[in-house]
């Protein structure tokens, strides 16, 4: 798949000075990679992002031209998530308005239009696969996984019960958790029987006493596989789902209370950002996890990473901070450059 989908939008911005320290170095920022470092490539494409702190507008930033276009959303709703279509010709925005969720489409003309009816409650995550949009509405009495064909009748249809779900890259299936523990797959049409593919009872990489406390919070399904954001007591972990249904916790620092996942388009590398604020010792950590489930730290930040996304070809990763600094790295985690661009609340990269 060639997009990044289903990420939470951080609601609180901490405006702190940023000093990124690659693990292989000491007190060296990404832009100070040494006198013999090769020049950073000229990045191209368009970034989809929110307008920043308390700004309800969306923005599209052209990397090559270094220009930013603001797009006002009807009714000034609060943005929850946003992502480009497969082609990059349009974008989809999940937003909250009057305590209910709505989806909007930003067309090639730069205008935002509402898609379908309002959701039956606040939607905490959105997703895109094939010709379908997905939203999860976690109501106490009726937690729902809903899908809509945006090129068709634009009607929301419930396919399963649960508070977390994701579409397959081709939009043919939905993976979801009905109870925060089991992981199920079902046809996106909702027809047929759901089948269990994994269960947190089988989680490894954590202490045995922690396994019963684990809960699935969000799901990310891409060409690289299925990754989960799992909570255990006071921390969040990234968990990979293997083909045989085994679950391996790959990263999760003590006190990590924010976590972001980003699959490499067309690849099998997962970027994981965690932010820990335990014991007044706040730090953010970026890791790269490979197909062999080995994770390595590539950066540590004494403040907070805001969001991250891959380039459409999977060659580069960009990480943003609440100060508006964008830091670019290659797929191996080597930092290429760091520069101030614009504060970015949610982020997706298209050509």
Structure, described:
The protein is mainly β. It has a single domain (46-350), classed as YVTN repeat-like/Quinoprotein amine dehydrogenase (Methylamine Dehydrogenase, Chain H), CATH 2.130.10. 0% of the residues lie in helices and 49% in strands. It is built from no helices and 29 strands. It has a five-stranded mixed sheet, with no helix packed on it. Strands 3-2-1-29 form a four-stranded antiparallel sheet, with no helix packed on it. It has a four-stranded antiparallel sheet with strand order 4-5-6-7, with no helix packed on it. The radius of gyration is 19 Å and the shape is globular.
Q: Topology, pairings included?
A:
Elements: E1 46-50, E2 58-62, E3 67-71, E4 78-84, E5 91-97, E6 100-106, E7 112-115, E8 123-129, E9 132-137, E10 144-149, E11 157-161, E12 164-167, E13 173-177, E14 182-187, E15 195-199, E16 203-204, E17 215-222, E18 225-232, E19 235-241, E20 247-251, E21 256-263, E22 270-276, E23 283-289, E24 295-301, E25 305-310, E26 316-321, E27 325-330, E28 335-340, E29 347-350
Parallel strand pairs: 16-20
Antiparallel strand pairs: 1-2, 1-29, 2-3, 4-5, 5-6, 6-7, 8-9, 9-10, 10-11, 12-13, 13-14, 14-15, 17-18, 18-19, 19-20, 21-22, 22-23, 23-24, 25-26, 26-27, 27-28
């Amino acid at each position: 798949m060639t997009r990044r989908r289903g990420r939470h939008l951080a609601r609180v911005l901490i405006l702190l000075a940023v000093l990124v320290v690659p693990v292989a170095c000491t007190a060296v920022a990404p832009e100070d990679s040494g006198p013999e470092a090769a020049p950073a490539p000229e990045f191209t494409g368009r970034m989809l992002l929110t307008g920043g702190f308390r700004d309800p507008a969306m923005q599209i930033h052209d990397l090559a031209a270094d220009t930013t276009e603001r797009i006002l959303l009807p009714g000034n709703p609060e943005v929850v998530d946003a992502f480009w279509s497969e082609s990059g010709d349009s974008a989809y925005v999940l937003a909250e308005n009057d305590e209910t969720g709505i989806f909007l489409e930003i067309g090639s003309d730069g205008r935002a239009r509402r898609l379908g009816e309002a959701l039956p409650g606040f939607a905490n995550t959105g997703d895109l696969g094939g010709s379908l949009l997905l939203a999860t509405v976690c109501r106490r009495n009726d937690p729902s996984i809903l899908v809509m064909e945006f090129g068709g009748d634009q009607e929301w249809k419930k396919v399963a019960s649960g508070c977390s779900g994701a579409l397959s890259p081709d939009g043919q299936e939905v993976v979801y958790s009905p109870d925060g523990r089991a992981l199920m797959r079902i046809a996106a049409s909702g027809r047929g029987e759901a089948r269990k593919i994994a269960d947190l009872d089988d989680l490894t990489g954590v202490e045995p006493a922690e396994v019963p406390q684990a809960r699935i919070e969000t799901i990310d399904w891409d060409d690289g596989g299925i990754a989960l954001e799992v909570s255990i007591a006071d921390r969040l972990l990234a968990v990979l789902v293997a083909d045989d249904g085994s679950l391996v916790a790959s990263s999760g620092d003590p006190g990590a209370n924010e976590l972001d996942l980003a699959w490499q388009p067309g690849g099998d590398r997962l970027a994981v950002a965690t932010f820990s604020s335990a014991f007044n010792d706040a730090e953010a950590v970026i890791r790269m996890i490979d197909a062999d489930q080995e994770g390595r730290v590539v950066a540590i930040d004494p403040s907070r990473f805001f969001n991250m996304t891959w380039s459409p070809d999977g060659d580069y990763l960009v990480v943003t901070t609440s100060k508006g600094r964008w830091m670019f790295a290659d797929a191996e985690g080597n930092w290429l450059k760091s520069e101030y661009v614009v504060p970015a609340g949610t982020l997706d990269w298209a050509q």
